[in-house]
Batch of 2 targets.
Target 1
Amino acid sequence: MEQIERIKTMEEHLNKATEAVKALSDALDLYTDAMESIETIDDYLVSDEWKQDFDDSEAGKLPKDLKCGVLSEDGIWNVVDTSRELNCQMLDIVSTMLRNS
């Protein structure tokens, strides 16, 4: 009976791992596609254009129905900072895997 339980347990591990690998692969594809956008909004945040857009928004010069989440420093900063943290986490994972192989 130990053999049957072992096989069942390993099958559960395989299913869990397969699901996680697929989810990570999909997420990495999406993240890789967004890297250019992350760099673009990071550059925009420190640009003169952002400052002008922010000032015009504060002065009420922009249409009221215009989505302006990008004019929130926190919005851009949070995405860029989280992206950097994720990049470091991925590097740590790869470094650990390389040391253990």
Target 2
Amino acid sequence: MMAIGFMGEYNHTVDAKGRLIIPATYREKLGERFVVTKGIDDCLVVYAMEQWEELLEKLSQISMTRQTNRNFNRFMLGKAGEVELDSHGRILLNTAFREYAQIEKDVVLVGAGKYIEIWAKDKYEEMMNGLDISAIADELDAAGIMI
């Protein structure tokens, strides 16, 4: 059972200094300190400390003799950083994060269950418009996962 469930989409902007407001509903579940790292789909991913520690535990279980495992660790952990909310409920997205996710100004924050994704708005819309939800539902149903 999932302890923290993030859901919903929120449109925001990143200011000239790279600061982003985290929606109040997310702030309540994230706490004062949390982790931001690169996401697999050219977005950023935000983990509450509890979920981050679960991920670290899982990563510690995989064999480091496999190159793909080492590469995944580098990808997920190498640029990860703890962030704190400022007094206005904002976090600072450093230049490397903004460049990776191609974030300039408009962003979409998306609750994805155990984590939050931060997308450049145009990239998010492009990705969502390209989805074939019926095909995805068929695959999930075939795997016995559909509800």
